[in-house]
Structure formats: structure tokens, C-alpha cells
Amino acid sequence: MARGTPLAALSCLIFLNCLKPLISWPANDKDAPDMSQPDYDQYLGDYLKPGDTLALLLDYDGTLAELTSHPNLTQMSDEMRESLRNIANSGKAFVAVISGRDVDGVKEKIGIDSMIYSGNHGLEVLYPNGTRHNQGIPKDVADNFDKMIDHLNREVVHHGSWVENKRVSITFHFREAEQKYVPEMAARAKEIIESYGYRANPAHASVEGKPPIQWNKGLAAEYILGSSFDPNWRTRKVLFAGDDTTDEDVMKMIKGTGRSFRVTKDKDLVTNADYKIPSVDAVYHLLKWIESRVA
């Protein structure tokens, strides 16, 4: 697998995207089956044949590991890790995890050296050979980062909420806060984040603070696929699974060429995914199905 391309190649990729927009289909809820008992032979059997070369992209929290009250408590099961390792080492699969965590943190959680890791929703990429690519952040915005965290800690961190420092982005968590405080603290956190020039986005029981650059998990996935998997990756087999709103950008990006799964128990959730699956356990069975195809 190739190393990451230099910044010039990335700029070219973004320029080409401007000329030819990414595939973007309307979000669908009725068209995405609720796979409470996933039958992967039925939904993927005609798409991924035994022996096909595959690109597998995955989220981490809520997809490969159960969500917990604190990110440090999140653990991937040994069975999930073993199946993922077998896929990554099969010689027939390219595997990358694109997470909201910082890149070193998600690699430490998974611990498989033969994969690509992308952190901070795609702002950081870490390759198996140690090469890194970091998306540029304007200096004046980066200089506000510590001030933003200090302000959040002073004003909105209370009653069980806290700020996760991910070096280039932050997450204001309120999963453990008393519900009566959540609307006001979340709204104020959004105001503070935006006052320092960062973008504020809602996530699972949290508000994400990201640099104001046109980048997301979908663009990161396209960059990784084009530079490391295959320049003609749209003609190849691509699968993605994720559980959060930030994962929808990947689902939109591969719509019509790849296959995607939204991990959710919400039958009414509007999603760009091709299929809904209900749990991390269902993701494990998806990996076992893929393993049987590429092993």
C-alpha cells in the first residue's frame, strides 16, 4: 500500500472535487432497511464476492466499541479486534478507521499496526509506516485553542460535563450531566466555541469544536482511498460502518458505489446509509462475514 501523498497532491484532489462534486443522494430513512437480525449474505452477497479486494472503513466509538460514560472507559472486545486484525492482515483488504478521537488515541485503543488511522474527524492521518498527514489549520485559529478550552472550563464545565482536549479539536461532553442543565450548557458551549473561530457541531451527548476548514470524515475517506487504496477506488469494493452524524459524510461520499451501515436502534432515523444495523454486536457479525470472504 502506498504512503500518503504530499500536500500538493491533496490540493489537486480537492481542486478536482470542486470541478466534479461528490456523489450526494438525498438522505433516506424508508429505503434503509432496519436490519435487526442482519443477513449479510442477502445484503452484500452480490456485492462482495469471495476473494474480492476490499476497502473497509470504520468509525470507532459506537461502532467497534460500545459507547461509555467516559471515552477512557471504552474497550474493543478481543473477538472484534481479532476479526479486524484477520481482515487487515489478509492481503485482500485495506482497512482504515476514521474517528473523532485524536489519531494516537484511537490507534492505542485498537492496537493493530497494519491499518491506517485517521483522527479528529479526518484532520490527522497516521500510516502503518509512521508517516503522518495533518490538515492545515490557520495560525490565528490555532492560537485560540487553549483560550477556548480555558473559557469552556470556567463557564460551562459543571454538574458532570467536561472538555476532551484532542489537540486540534475538542469535545464538550455532557452525557453524565443532569438533564435539566444540558440545553443551557450545550447552547452556551456552542457560543463559546464559535466565538474563538471554531465550528460547533452536535454529536452524541456532546458538542464538537472543530477548526473552520472545509474538511470532514467524507473528504478524509476520499483522500485516504485515493492516495492509499486505489486512485480508481470508485470501481472497487468499499464498505463503511458508523454510528454518528459525523459519519454521514462518508455515507454520502460512497453512495451508489460502496455500501454503508448506520449503527442505530432508531427506526425513524434519517440516514444516507444503505442499511441500518442495531448494535456493536451487529458490526462484529459484519466483520466476521467479511472475514469469511477475504480470509
> What is the topology, as strand order, of the major beta sheet?
5-4-3-2-1-10-11-12
CATH homologous superfamily caption of the largest domain:
HAD superfamily/HAD-like
Q: Give the CATH architecture of the largest domain.
A: 3-Layer(aba) Sandwich
How far the N terminus sits from the C terminus, by CA atoms, comes to 18 Å
CA radius of gyration is 19 Å
As an assembly, this protein is single chain
Beta content: 15-25%
Q: Write the H/E string, N to C.
A: HHEHEHEEEHHEEHEEHEHEEH
The secondary structure category is alpha/beta
CATH topology of the largest domain: Rossmann fold
Q: What's the helix count?
A: 10
| Number of strand segments | 12
Task: Specify the CATH class of the largest domain.
Answer: Alpha Beta
| Tally of structural domains | 2
For the largest beta-sheet, the strand count, sense and barrel status come to:
8 strands, mixed
Low-confidence stretches: 1-30
Q: Give the rounded overall mean pLDDT.
A: 88
Shape summary: globular
Percentage of residues assigned to helices: 25-40%
